[in-house]
Specification:
heterodimer; A: 498 residues; Rossmann fold; globular; B: 340 residues
């Protein structure tokens, strides 16, 4: 199967998300779709997979013009998409999810489906227990299930949106092996949307780059069976970044700061949890220090951070902040002393949908009975200016794009905190926005703030952390020397190899 | 076994039937992600209009008795279904809050029932008669308890198994559960989310209407003011939660509730004797007994406790038990669904 997109246009209000896109995807090829946040790559993939109609333009499959509406029609035409958060049903078992959407007739024919499921999992070296509920699975397993399900439906083109976020190096190898086999052996088209340039260079045969809704370039990737030297990777990366942003970005590294006195001490801390068997954690954080927490989602790092921020129950051990024992304190008390927690769920916990930027600013302003709206509005405007947020002070927060929401979240942090505990501070942001966020954070470090953060982006962890703690199933391991740890080693460590 | 005791159990099954049917109806509605909070009012309005239809037919001398009853049931089901459709329409189409709309409708329907029922108060009308099931009624213990009842009771058994089969054994049931859990996923697999939500709300409402008819044509025949079933709608809503949205557990909950009620009314009339000694007891407290039991059960099945226990079970029974013991509501319950 070959796919051709011709003159695709899509507008959202004033934004021209896809502006006259023309591109061809040939069978057996793995193609990377690159672009910064808002470049239009997700929109294009949603059009191709039927989740959104194009305003204008044609989709041709094997030179035949195809008109389809809805994701099921796209699948019927052989095009399936794996979403970043796989579109499965958490309360269903693996088997039910596999059956759902494909079954015909009244009853479920479980035995037949189970045989097909175990066939497909064995073929790709996946490990899936058919009777586990989806809620108990890791994101990598949910991806595997979704891929298998789409294959069982006869898909010949597979679109993957950020599939390497939140999975271990080993799981990534399994995934990439499977994708290579699908392309080489079965002639499938694999389209990979990703921010991680290393992954794209490693896996893809060619890339397509979008910028501000326009297609700005195509490029062949160096063959992966040839030895990929680090010089070649760095060179290719440079070229891709130039295409994506229209300019070269300086390599950012962690500037060296003086490490000050200890501000935060966790002593043999055991966090309470029903599912994980949490081991005691001891950690001393100094002023100006950045501590990175690595681990697959749900390995205990989130619990530890929340325990440090005093919003998660502690079984035993003690916490000290700024010379005070805070083991039994509340987050509010911590906040007053200069420790700030930033949650990963932007709209769930970090920001409040339905409130404007001004109202958000008022929320973090001093506790006075009456709000001085004029001065708050002025302060909101200053922040919008300083943090280069695309949006008006009177906009509701959910009207902003994800990247701008994240900027606002950072903008709401106090200027001189003693400590920041941040969950995935750059989740879902492109390279440029992520760097900008870190510039802001490191400025605060230079003024003496300590940072504890977690991330599923291993490069981010290695780049910005002074020390890294690796979590696996409640166990913790501290890296002896971050500067000598490669991303690949870290990828194996988060898979529990320590 | 003591014959009197078996008769009591049989009458508990009989009086629990309206609750069983109403709770099962609400179960499928909520499984689809819609909360129909109008139950209490719907039951009353369906009961009075169903009774009025059957009685009018009887007075006019048209139709034979079974058909008069059938007419009453049909009217009651239509009433329940229409009220449920209003909830569905305002939440799906007009995007109003389901809880608010349901709450207002329950008050409205209850008042309407009193108003329309004024002319039908305390008059005898047609009644559903008992019909023993041959052979099965002979089975010891089970026969007198379950199979010497009326058609509505038998229907409630079929309904329970039917809903269980639909939810867990059919592909249509997978879609039903999916639209209540994660409508985006259902949409991506070809389900017409809104249309199905309408349909299951309608169906659930019709069953609530049927439950209303089961009161006025059988369990508490006729109509009185205040209505005999007042409050039972709220109880049915609680039973759905107690039953973890699983038809077997929901039915169990309804029977348990009816049994506790029978115990408490027995104590109220005969007094409480322990070892021949009469104990004085504030009877009002007895009415709180079912609720207390419900809370305790919910505490046991919710939280991480069941998941921990399940780990010790053999693998083969694990996933079956998990479906039965779950206590989480459908994740998309009460939310709107919009596809870009």
């Amino acid at each position: 199967m070959d796919i051709e997109l011709r003159n695709i246009h899509k507008r959202f209000g004033a934004i021209h998300a896809n502006n006259d896109i023309n591109v061809r995807f040939r069978h057996g090829r793995i193609v990377g779709i690159l672009g910064e946040n808002g470049a239009g790559k997700s929109t294009l993939m949603k059009i191709l997979s039927g989740f959104q109609p194009a305003d204008q333009g044609d989709i041709l499959i094997d030179d035949r013009r195809i008109d389809y509406k809805g994701p099921t029609a796209a699948i019927a035409n052989g095009i399936g998409m794996l979403q970043q958060d796989p579109l499965d049903v958490g309360a269903f078992t693996v088997l039910e999810n596999f059956i759902y959407g494909g079954a015909e007739g009244l009853t479920l024919k479980r035995a037949q489906a189970e045989a097909q499921l175990s066939d497909l999992t064995a073929r790709f070296g996946f490990e899936l227990d058919p009777h586990q509920p989806i809620d108990n699975l890791l994101i990598a397993q949910r991806q595997q299930l979704e891929i298998i399900r789409l294959l069982a439906l006869g898909v010949e083109t597979l679109i993957l949106d950020e599939p390497t976020t939140g999975i271990s190096a080993e799981q990534k190898d399994i995934l990439f092996d499977a994708l290579r086999r699908l392309a080489r052996d079965e002639g499938m088209i694999i389209l990979l949307v990703s921010h991680k340039l290393e992954d794209v260079i490693d896996l893809c045969d060619e890339v397509v780059v979008l910028r501000a809704g326009l297609m700005v370039g195509e490029m062949d990737m160096p063959a992966s069976d040839k030895d990929l030297t680090s010089a070649l990777i760095a060179d290719t990366k440079g070229q891709l970044v130039t295409m994506m942003f229209g300019e070269e970005l300086d390599a950012q590294s962690r500037p060296h700061y003086e490490i000050g006195a200890p501000v935060f001490i966790a002593d043999k801390l055991i966090v309470q949890d029903l599912r994980l068997d949490m081991q005691p954690i001891s950690l001393t954080v100094h002023a100006g220090e950045v501590i990175g927490l690595a681990g697959l989602g749900g390995s205990g790092q989130e619990l530890f951070m929340r325990a440090c921020a005093r919003i998660q129950r502690v079984n035993s051990g003690s916490l000290h902040f700024d010379g005070n024992n805070i083991t039994g304190a509340s987050y509010r008390q911590l906040f007053r002393r200069g420790c700030v927690f930033g949650a990963a769920g932007r709209l769930e916990e970090g920001l409040i949908a339905g409130l404007t930027l001004i109202e958000h600013t008022a929320l973090v302003a001093d506790d006075k009975l009456q709000i001085d709206w004029k001065s708050v509005a002025k302060r909101a405007d200053t922040r919008i200016d300083h943090y280069r947020i695309k949006g008006a002070a009177t906009d509701n927060i959910e009207q902003l794009s994800g990247g701008n929401q994240q900027r606002m979240l950072i903008g709401l942090l106090p200027d001189d905190p003693k400590m920041l505990i941040l969950e995935q501070p750059t989740r879902g942001l492109d390279v440029d926005s992520a760097r900008w966020i870190w510039t802001q954070l490191l400025e605060r470090c230079a003024r003496g703030a300590a940072i504890i953060f977690n991330s599923s982006d291993l490069e981010e962890l290695v780049t910005y952390s002074d020390r890294i703690l690796v979590f696996y199933a409640g166990r913790v391991h501290e890296l002896p020397d971050v500067s000598r740890t490669s991303i690949d080693e870290l990828g194996h460590l988060i898979g529990g190899e320590f | 076994m003591n014959e009197e005791f078996l008769n009591t159990l049989g009458s508990i099954v009989g009086t629990a039937t309206p609750l069983v049917i109403a709770s099962l109806g609400e179960t499928i509605t909520e499984r689809a992600g819609v909360v129909n909070l109008s139950l209490d009012g719907s039951l009353a309005l369906a009961a009075v209009l169903g009774f009025a239809a059957a009685w009018t037919a009887q007075e006019a001398g048209v139709l034979n008795v079974p058909m008069q009853i059938a007419l009453g049931i049909a009217v009651a089901m239509l009433v329940g279904a229409l009220i449920a459709l209003l909830v569905g329409f305002s939440s799906i189409k007009l995007r109003r809050d389901q809880v608010a709309v349901g709450f207002v409708l329950t008050l409205l329907a209850a008042e309407l029932a009193r108003f329309l029922g004024a002319d039908f108060t305390r008059i005898p009308g047609p009644q559903i008669t008992r019909f023993n099931i041959p052979l099965l009624e002979q089975v010891p213990i089970l026969g007198p308890v379950f199979f010497q009842q009326n058609l509505l009771v038998y229907f409630s058994y079929l309904l329970m198994f039917g809903i269980w089969f639909w939810l867990f054994r059919s592909s249509g049931g997978l879609t039903l559960r999916a639209i209540g859990e994660r409508p985006e996923a259902a949409y991506a697999r070809g389900a017409h989310v809104q249309r199905l939500r309408y349909w299951y709300t309608f169906l659930g409402g019709a069953l609530v209407g049927l439950a209303g008819a089961a009161y006025s044509l059988n369990v508490k025949p006729g109509w009185s003011s205040p209505p005999a079933m007042q409050g039972d709608g709220w109880i049915a809503l609680a039973i759905v939660i107690f039953g973890g949205w699983h038809p077997f557990r929901v039915v169990l909950g309804a029977y348990l509730f009816a049994a506790l009620r029978a115990v408490s009314s027995n104590i109220q009339t005969n007094g409480l004797f322990i070892f021949g000694q009469e104990i004085s007891f504030p009877f009002v407290l007895l009415n709180a007994l079912p609720w207390l039991l419900m809370i305790v059960t919910l505490l046991i099945v919710s939280g991480g406790l069941t998941e921990r226990l399940l780990q010790y079970m053999p693998r083969a029974v694990q996933h079956r038990l998990r479906a039965f013991l779950r206590s989480d509501p459908p994740k998309a319950l009460g939310t709107r669904f919009e596809m870009e």
